[in-house]
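Ticket #4471: structure export looks truncated?
Reporter: QA, pipeline team
Priority: medium

Steps to reproduce: submit the single chain below to the structure queue and open the exported record.
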Amino acid sequence: MERKEYILMYEIEESHWWFKGKRKIVFSQLKPYMKGRKNLKILDIGCGTGVMMKNFQKYGDVTGIDMEMTALDFCRQRGLKNIFQGDISDFPFKKDSFDIIGIFDVLYHKGVKNDLKVLKGIFRILKPGGILVLTDSADMKLWSKHDIATHARERYTTPKLSTRLKSAGFKINKISYFNTILYPLVFAVRKLDNLSSRKGEVSTNLKKTNSFLNFILYQIFVFENNLMKMFDLPFGVSIFAIAKKI
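Actual output as written to the record:
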């Protein structure tokens, strides 16, 4: 991402409906796998400004790695210490090191030249029985200047991501789209943005939201999370998955 996007992300990530809603889905869907487990070794790949790391801390010892020094600077401002700058295509960790690995909206990044290699690397450093939890961008029909601003390479489908995970050796426990209800609105906004923005002008769709609208949009994610406990959503702006090393 551009530095200005990191600054905005740091300012709003804890309360913004999108980030808060994503955390709701991640930790709610992950909860059954955490029962009775303590003092876990956890890795957050592409840790960004550190909010996911802080949420993982209640489960054990959390390490963060990111390619961008700007992101790690913001992690330090949140008081996080166990963080490293590194290439996620070549993890500097020993085999069978972690119980839980999270990778949130990272695989789509153009800095990831080979997503299968990254997933195989994750498989290597997960302990047997370890859990991978991930989110990523979905559906190339939504490609827009937002993706250019966030340095995206592609947007996934669940079949493509499932194939990648299985090829890396994982057993898939859950894979679903999310941010489904807002899909038509997001589609329209991004197509209009592609048409209206001046050539060369790119920015993300990330913006501060008034408190009432922020609450309503967050509740949509809460509702979708409840649906995801019953069945996988058939389309959406993003993808969620839980996979296991067996």
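Status: closed, not a bug. The export was complete when the record was re-opened. Leaving a note from the reviewer for reference: Residues 3-245 form a domain with the Rossmann fold fold (CATH 3.40.50.150).
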